[in-house]
Amino acid sequence: MDERGRLMDAGFTAEQDEIRRTLREVLRKRCGPAELRAAVDTAPGHDPALWTALAEQLGLPGLALPEAYGGVGCSVTELALACEETGRFLAPSPLLATAALAAPLLLALGTGAQRAELLPRIADGTLTAALAVPGTHLATALALTGDNDGDWAGGGRAGGVQARRVGDGWRLYGQADQVLDGHSAGLLLVAAHAGGFARSRTLLFLVRGDADGLVRARQTALDATRPRARVQLRDTEAELLGGEEADVLTALGRLGDSAAAVLAGEAVGAADQVLGLTVEYVRRREQFGRPVGSFQAVKHRLADVYVEVQAARSAAYYAAWAAAHGEQVGALALAQALEALRSASAEGIQLHGGIGFTWEHEAHLYFKRACGDELLFGPVHRLRAHAAGAAHLFESAEVTV
Predict the structure, then answer these.
(1) Which phi and psi angles does 59 have, rounded to 5°?
(2) Which end of the chain is less packed: N or C, by CB atoms within 10 Å?
(3) Strand partners of residue 234
(4) What is the DSSP string of 118-162?
C-alpha cells in the first residue's frame, strides 16, 4: 500500500519475468568478466555487437517507448527491471544514456516531427543519444541533490553552455564534462542557457554527432564500465527541442526521479551479484581446515550485507512501480541501493582475501561502479538530504507559548 492508499502489486507479470530471464541468459553468455574488460577497452567503451543484439532481439532501447514510435510500450518499471540484469553483469552499453535519460526528454518535449524522426531510430537501436549538462552538474540538473533552478546552465554568467539565436537557427557555446556515452552518441541533447538576463531560461537543443564545432573526447573515469565524455561546443549548430515555451526544468526534474529508479535497479543487480560471488568463494576457500564461510564472524558480516541488499531491492522495486504511477521516491531508493552496493562490494574485496585486493579481480569493478555512481548522481547523504528537504521533514515548527 502506498501513501495514497493505493495497493501496490508486489508480484511480477509473466512478461516482466520473461524480460529478466531472457536478458540474464544473454548477458551471462556474452558479458562475462573477460568480455567486459575487452569491451571497456574499445573506443566506444562497449561491444557494438552486444548492443545490436540487445536492441534487435530484446528491444531494450525501446522498452519504455510507445508502440506508435516502434517501442515495446512498457513503462519505467520494465526498464528498471531490465537494468537490474544489466547492472548484475555491469554490462557497458548506451542503454542508460539513451533509454533512461535522452529518450524520455524527446518523448516529453519534442515536436511531432522530432519524435517521429528520432524515436523509432532510438527504439531499434540504430541511434544512440546522450544528455549533455554543463560542467559537472548532472545530479543537480536532474533535481537529485539540489534544486534545478537553472543556474547550473550558466544563468547568463560566463561558463555553462550558452545558446544564441542566429537567423532561424541556434548556435551553442560551452562545455559539458560528464556526458554519459557522449563520445559515441549519434545525438546529443544539450541543456543551455538562453535569453540573456532579461529573459533568462534553460532550453534543450538537439546536436547531431557530426555537427561542425562539436569536439568530444572520452575521459578517463574511475568506473570504466560507465564511459563518459567531455563535450565542447564551439559555435555549434543546434536545433531547439520542442519550442521556447517548453518547461525544461520541470521535465528534467521528472526525468531525475525515473532515472534514479532505473539506477537503483542497476545498483541492486550489481550488489546481488557481488554478494553471490563472495558467498560462493567463502564456501570453497578453506582456512584452518574448514571453509571460511563457516566462521561465525564471516556469517554475520554476510548476513548484514544480505539484509541491506534485500532492503535496497524492496526500495528499488517500489521506486520503479511508483515512477510509473506518478510518485517520486527514486532518489531515496537510489541512495539505499548505492549504499548496499558499496557495502556488498567492499565486503567482497575483504572476504576474498589477498586475491580480492588485486585490481584484476572483478570485485573491484563493482566497488568502482558504486563509487563512480555516487560521484555522478550523489553522494548518498546529499540524495537523502535533498529528498528530506523537498518533503519538509526537518522544518522547525513555531511553538506558541
Answers:
(1) 65, 30
(2) C
(3) 173
(4) HHHHHHTTS--EEEE-SBT-HHHHTTSSS---SGGGTTTSSSSEE
Least confident of 123-127, 134-138, 299-303: 134-138
Q: Which domain holds residue 213?
A: 130-246
Whether 156 has a pLDDT exceeding 50, the answer reads no
Contact between residue 89 and residue 33 where contact means Cβ atoms under 8 Å apart: no
| Tally of domains in the chain | 3
Q: How does DSSP classify residue 96? A: I
Specify the DSSP element, H or E, that contains 336.
helix 330-351
Q: Does residue 351 sit in the same domain as residue 287? A: yes
CB atoms within 10 A of CB 181: 27
Q: Cα Rg for the chain, rounded, in angstroms?
A: 22
102 lies in some domain: no
Q: Do residues 182 and 223 lie in contact, with contact meaning Cβ atoms separated by under 8 Å?
A: no
- Does 73 share its domain with 190? no
Mean pLDDT for all residues in the chain: 91
> pTM of the full predicted structure?
0.93
The helix (run of H) or strand (run of E) holding residue 243 is none
pLDDT at residue 355 in the model: 85
Question: What is the identity of the amino acid at 317?
Answer: Y
